[in-house]
Design brief:
Elements lengths: L13 E6 L5 H15 L1 H11 L8 E2 L3 E2 L1 H6 L6 H16 L3 E8 L4 E8 L5 H4 L3 H11 L1 H10 L35 H9 L19 H5 L9 H5 L5 H13 L4 H8 L13 H41 L31 H10 L2 H7 L8 H12 L5 H13 L7 H13 L5 H16 L5 H4 L7 E2 L5 E2 L30 H15 L5
Parallel strand pairs: 1-5
Antiparallel strand pairs: 1-2, 1-3, 4-5, 6-7
Length: 522
Amino acid sequence: MRISNMHHFTENHRFYVYREFALGVLELKMLTSIYQPMIGAYAISIYQTLAGQVPADRLGYSELEQQRKLFLALDLEPGERGRKIFIETTSKLEAVGLLQTTRRYFPAIDDYMYEYQLLAPLAPDEFFKNQHLVMLLRDKVGKYAVLALRESFQCQEPEELADPDAVAENISVPFYDLFQLNTSVIDFELEQALYETAPTRERSSGLDVTSKAFHYTEIITRFPRESANRPFVEALRYEPQQMIAINMTARKFSLTLQDTVRLLDEDGVFDEAGELQVDLLQYKANMNYRQGRKRDEERERHIVKAEAAAEAVRRSNSRESSQWEGIEEKTVEMSYYLEVPTLFIGQCDIHQYNALLRNEPYTQLLSRFFPKGTVPKTVADIFDKIDINYKLPDEVINVMIHHLHVYKESSWTKGYIDSVASNMLAKGVGTYEQAVEYIREQTLKRTGGRDSASAAGKDSRTSTAAPGGRRSYNNGRAGNAQQSQKPKISIITDIPTAPQLTQEQLEEMRRRAQKLDGKLKK
């Protein structure tokens, strides 16, 4: 039971108990012999007290009473200490599947009411098939006691019945051999009356008890009367398995009640006999889920862009002297250095370039890799998605931009960029160091163990010195020490011409690089 405010759970609040089973001798033995060692005798006493609120020869709901009645029956002092003991004990009942607690809020009286729904103890064969309950019982009483308890619920088979030569024949009489029913007339009024006046309430059998399922009444009240599928939807109240399939689909693809009703109104969802086409329903629900997710991502990007534009206007009005003021610069260890691409040779050294990768926003770094700083719209959009929807840090995106520029066999295509970002997300890359390790692993996979210093940097842990100052990577395979390596072929063939910069722009770039490198004081 999750209670965040103790004033919402007091002995003055009303409660009722719902029970749709009876406690027999076997159930009582399961409670005392199996469940009691796991959760304690006090929890079982609360369970039996709640069960006694409904008459033993009936099922359904108890009368509305104040929780003070429970506190007095359980010898709990009315106060915060008694409430905490009751909450902790009932939580154990909920954890082992004997109780479900629901809190209902009534705006008319501005108060809460609590429902305690009791669940029947598992049968012995079902309990010992439940792995986590058996493991909990083993931790409490030991494995030998578990085996002894299991045997105590079983009556052994007589030895004569174990004869393999014995032949069994089913001689039971079927129902229709003795009784004949008038099936020519179907009394729909009787069926509806029995359904509506049933002592047990409608339950989402087969679904996770923690999820909210859509009931037939919620669907039919919102379904259009003039729809061709109306008769099939009305028949769902007699088809619990189809309702389960609908709710499982709705939960799998995060459908709202309105979306579920709209999909059930689609052509082809029901066949001519009124059977639900589950595969078609899931296909349409999947399409709805993907379209909704795409709209949500676009909406999120537009909101973030609008907020960024407003922030830029605010900074412009306040006349900030530099975009780097107030930002703590992060240093890069030598083992995680990346070599300067050909495009930036002569503009900055390796220290300044790695400082830019670690500290500069990805939007500014991305513009440096394109002539005149003009980034194509498709590239800008996919990086917006990576930044806003995937929530990768700027330093990780900068390393990915470096990787795409150095090894861009697939060019700057949307699919290739998205695949790299998705792979980094799946591997849990979230820091600059992890991103560098990732691209070095990818470089080793691409080159098959050949020299990849242009992207892997100078990591001495994964490289060994070779004659001529070159580095060669060990591919980790036995017996390949004397295998001749393929000649190194340059990958970059379309090196763009560096744009002509003015003297003022060069001085500004040098000043920022020196500031990042720590050589320039503020």
